[in-house]
């Protein structure tokens, strides 16, 4: 009966097992099994062994023992001979009862096993039927969301139509006002001119009349007739000769209309933003100790990261997220939601009394994954102090208060944890960093400019080491070139660097006051700008192959042809739109517009390819879109402008019109005075972290 031993042990087992025993201990392997209610007689037969024994009994003397084995015969028996039902003679067992975990024949299915199948099928039916209410609720929810979407679409279309109708009305009113004003000015001027014209015409007519009369008298009149009119005509002619006529114009013909449409057209092109996300609750997640634990009276935050239906990160904000914190007695605690505009949100709250709370996070009224959470609030005095608690009170290096000089190594999370609002709560976007302070390959001393090439290279201006270093996109050192000196081909203080469409490396040399051009393998080719430049800092190449350099000392921008011929120059020292105060770096967007960081004016200014001012953005401060001396700048394929904020040690992202979008998270390994900035060919942001003597590459969520 044991599954691994012979079946002919029935009598032995009966003698072996004590009467009334509920268990069976196998005499061979000592494995203990529970006996059926009817004892040994109810044990299942081992059909494999049974068939094997039948084969051996049927063929006791095999004529070719070398050609067939017992196992082969057994396999043949199990493969070709169906199993017989022990309860119904001659019936084949071709069914299986899952409830009893045993094989059975057709007659068995009509007997004791009949109810088993009905019961199993009923259980399955109940299980699947129980899903109907869930599906009904899901259908109602999806239909409701679909209805809301249609209603909001209609509302958005109505709002767009109304807004543009009002704008058209305003434009029409302005058009009418301008035309009316033109007509009025013209009418006034015409009246003045008509009065003058009438006077001139009258004078002309009087003179012609007097002249004709006098000529007639002289030609055809007798001496007596001439004597009679002489006095009268003489006085009249004399009076006309002395009369002052308004011969100079009393008005001018100047009348026109100047309508500045460039800014308006740009505004119209960017007018209106459609607000939507693909975020859904069941894939979005919340993180932070504040989901489960809080200290009474202390502000606590958690982070919600939104995702779409496929679990992919949503990279835009404006999702409808709200929080509910309810105590056991039904009292609500107010929670604030801060939108980081990058698909993540900070939920902050302050619990006023200790106890248990239900903490729900609802995204579009649907719970995020794991919500609601069981939150427990305790008094600060009830929490034991630990070394980690002390560390958490150390002020974050990115939390303001000026620069914190530091070794550029990755910090443990406890060093920068804070309950204050983080600028960007995504874990960390740093991919890798390269370099420490030094003079060897892959080491830097006050690196400044950084550029990238289409063939996957990162080029760094190592300023105080007077050289250029080249790396692959994944940070592997490739080569270094440059010799210190003031002769052509030598470097004295390389600050800016860029790579042109031919792969040539163009270097702005601040102390040599010129631009050096090297081949992709570092061989000197030419220098330009000597005698014109006073202190070039940043350099870029536009779509026409022109070399654009920012002269930091002269506070202007030069545009050269690749052969060194000057195309144009614009800017001077000052604070106006066309003036600069220590400009640093330059980039060119896909419209061939020139983007310049104005260091001491704390702004970014944009010009067309001819140097005409277009617009600017930024002001002095630490808020979103503000700068404390901007340095590096780059523009992505969508026209977004990425700016290194030197004094605030951060990187900010703006749209093509200069509106703030987001930060690139640098909190885990803080920047210290970032300089040059560029986009790699694989879409990441490379920044020269000058104060930490390294460059870093970050993920950039376009």
From TrEMBL:
It comes from the Eukaryota. NHL repeats lie at residues 433-474, 478-521, 522-563, 567-610, 614-657, 658-701. One of its GO terms (molecular function) is zinc ion binding. Residues 80-121 form the B box-type domain. Its EC number is 2.3.2.27. One of its GO terms (biological process) is protein polyubiquitination. Transmembrane segments: none annotated. Residues 384-420 are annotated as: Disordered. The keyword Phosphoprotein applies. It catalyses: S-ubiquitinyl-[E2 ubiquitin-conjugating enzyme]-L-cysteine + [acceptor protein]-L-lysine = [E2 ubiquitin-conjugating enzyme]-L-cysteine + N(6)-ubiquitinyl-[acceptor protein]-L-lysine. Keywords: Metal-binding, Phosphoprotein, Repeat, Transferase, Zinc, Zinc-finger. Filamin repeats lie at residues 286-377. Belongs to the TRIM/RBCC family. This is RING-type E3 ubiquitin transferase. It comes from Scophthalmus maximus. The gene is LOC118299461.
